[in-house]
Design a protein that fits this description.
Blueprint lengths: L3 H7 L7 E4 L2 E7 L18 H7 L10 H5 L4 E6 L4 E6 L11 H5 L4 H12 L1 H7 L11 E6 L6 H11 L4 E5 L7 H17 L3 E5 L2 H4 L7 H16 L3 E6 L15 E4 L5 H12 L9 H10 L4 H15 L7 H12 L8
Parallel strand pairs: 5-8, 5-9, 6-7, 7-8
Antiparallel strand pairs: 1-2, 3-4
Helix pairs in contact: 8-10, 11-12, 11-13, 13-14
Length: 344
């Protein structure tokens, strides 16, 4: 996410400073910084370089002039979602996002559930303008809970929703917040702020630590749960939480969740969709409908295990070779011959 303003907000030391030299009151000494602030002018230039970042038009395909190039920088500043770090990025490596809206349609999930999910996220902006709780800024956000066994498609659902509505996906886990309550609250505030600023779909993956029932013995964890509950109530964006342990939820979460969806191990029809979507990614891999049905019926497992099974078979047959049904069967028998189903 390229965002100079937010970068400066979180890195105030990146702003340039100037000090008067004692031996010459009229001479300014500029300290080297990544870029000047919007309030600082460089002698000899009529245009402040920081303004370029804030007013730069949408790409038109036209090359900039040499004069313009002299006052621009080969880097832009922003946030890397995958690595969770701020940094500078080469302009040559920055490009518009190529959203894949079709991936949501391919999701092996009931059509009515997909429709509800899509509507809830799409209508979020309208609901922000048209509805608030009695207390200002409460009840504006949308919290969606996806619960079920591992590998059943919870995280994939969040990823495809973000693609469908063309919003960035900001994924965090409880481990990234830390164990100290004070630090965790500060980290949580920053994550919520960034997600709202960028209108991102916020995914709290494996949110068991946030949702677990409070007890009288674990005061620090109880405080952490209480903090998360309060932050959740005032959060104004789209938040998706995933967990494997719905039965351990604190009761206070029930009134704060707008939609809860339970995931099971995919049935035969859903596994057919998973196999077909997987095979469509490879031009040299062709399984007819009957073969796909046999695979779906034979291996009663989740989407993650199917993907692992096929990718391993693909690696074993070698580059460019076609995977055959017997390759998958042989690999399955090697690893899970004594099990009725693959691990979940």
């Amino acid at each position: 996410m390229v965002d100079l303003d937010t970068y400066l907000k979180h890195h105030p030391d990146a702003l340039p400073r100037h000090e008067e030299r004692r031996d010459n009151a009229n001479e300014k000494l500029f300290e080297r910084r990544p870029f000047p602030s919007t309030s600082t002018k460089i002698p000899g230039f009529s245009l402040n370089p920081a303004d370029i970042f804030q007013t730069y038009p949408q790409p038109s395909g036209k090359k900039i002039s040499d004069s313009q190039a002299m006052i621009t920088t080969p880097y832009v500043y922003g946030f890397a979602f995958m690595r969770k770090i701020w940094g500078e990025f080469s302009v040559d490596d920055v490009e518009d996002i190529d959203w894949d809206q079709s991936c949501f349609e391919k999701l092996a999930l009931q059509s009515d559930i997909k429709d509800i999910l899509q509507r809830l996220v799409h209508l979020h902006e309208d609901s922000r303008r048209g509805f608030e709780d009695i207390v200002s800024r409460k009840g504006v956000g949308r919290a969606i809970l996806l619960h079920g066994p591992p590998g059943s498609g919870k995280t994939l659902t969040a990823e495809t929703i973000a693609e469908r509505v063309q919003k960035p996906l900001y994924c965090v886990t409880s481990g990234e917040l830390g164990t100290d309550v004070t630090k965790a609250e500060k980290n949580l505030e920053q994550i919520f702020e960034l997600a709202q600023t960028w209108k991102a779909v916020l995914l709290i993956d494996e949110a068991d630590v946030f949702l677990a029932k409070r007890t009288g013995m674990e005061m620090e964890r109880n405080a952490f749960v209480s903090i998360f509950l309060r932050k959740l109530e005032y959060y104004q964006g789209i938040m998706i939480l995933t967990t494997n342990r719905h039965e351990d939820f604190d009761e206070a979460f029930e009134s704060r969740i707008h939609l809860a969806i339970h995931y099971d191990i995919p049935d035969t029809q859903q596994r057919i969709i998973i196999w077909r979507n997987l095979l469509n990614k490879f031009q040299n891999q062709y399984f007819d409908d009957e073969m796909i049905r046999r695979l779906a019926e034979r291996y009663e497992t989740n989407g993650r295990a199917i993907n692992n099974l096929f990718s391993t078979a693909l690696a074993l047959v070698g580059s460019g070779a076609a995977v055959k049904e017997e390759d998958i069967e042989r690999l399955y028998n090697m690893q899970w011959a004594k099990r009725r189903t693959l691990p979940t």
